[in-house]
Amino acid sequence: MEITENIELKHRPFLAERFHRMHLNISDYTFANVYLFRNIGRYNIKTKDCGTFISAYNFKGQNYIMPLSSPEVCSAETLVEFLDADNFFFPIPEEWLPFFPADTFSVSCDDSESDYIYLSSAMASFSGKQFTRHRNHLNQFFGAYQAVDRSLGDDALTDAMAVLETWQDESRISPAKTDFAVCAEALQNFSDLALWGTIYYIEDQPAGFIIGEALNSDMFCLHFAKGSRKYHGIYQFMFNDTAKKLETDYKYLNLEEDMGNKNLRKTKLSYGPQRILKKYRVGLKAGI
User: Fold this and answer.
1) 212, 257, 235: which is closest to 90 by C-alpha?
2) pLDDT in tens, 231-254
């Protein structure tokens, strides 16, 4: 028997517990990401006898299935029941690949879907040649501004929304083509989604913010970083300051994927990722 449900806030305790138990480094496996993109990705929960899965669609309209536990608990025959010629399991970590028999399943990956993983200590120090340009921007920021940080909570969400609206205006891109709506909903449901964040003020004006959440005991995932372009170096400052705040508790920072955006890829590579984490697609072999 299969049961299907749309994802709602009421599912957070169940899904957050599942994600915590899985202890994966992949950014997709957080309740905030699943909930905030539930409409864009048409997410819903499917429960079968051997476990729970999420059905979703990527930006290309391809259907994929997210396991909510290690696939070793399902037989190969049951896993096959989820698939047809057009869909696939995703995102699958490398350590799960042995649970998909090679005579039945095919494996592939798309680099645009890979997560960028950084050492928190490296981002906190900005030391070495890799960070020369970022250090210069950071020093210029310190020379021009004195930022004040504040924990992002319900009492600062109006200020954070002002930052987001400024960022959207400065982007000169239609809100339909940015993550404006998704980030706005993250702010509106900040407490309910159990998010963590910092907002920064310059001369008493809200200037930028960062929002994220823990993926596991070793890794923290940064979902949103928004700042006004008029403050040169603010992104270097926010990433550096966030890493300093988190490095004693989390060895790694996950800045998620680049979605095939060349400028975003260039920026994320410039911060010297310690690892680019591949997320695998597992589909049926032709003829199965």
Assistant:
1) 257
2) 999 999 999 999 999 999 999 999
Residue type for position 97? L
Distance CA 206, CA 228 (A): 9
268 vs 69: CA distance, rounded Å: 30
Q: 115-149: per-residue pLDDT in tens? A: 999 999 999 999 999 999 999 999 999 999 999 99
Q: Which of 238, 153, 223 is nearest to 182 (CA)?
A: 223
Residue 114 is given by DSSP the state P
Residue 81's Cα: distance from chain center in Å? 29
Is the distance from CB of 213 to CB of 32 less than 8 angstroms? yes
Task: Tell whether the torsion through CA atoms of 92, 94, 99 and 100 is positive or negative.
Answer: positive
Radius of gyration of the chain (CA): 20
Q: How far apart are CA 65 and CA 56, in angstroms?
A: 6
Q: Which domains does the chain have, with CATH numbers?
A: 3-110+279-284 (3.40.630.30), 115-256 (3.40.630.30)
Closest CA to 33 of 41, 25, 24: 41
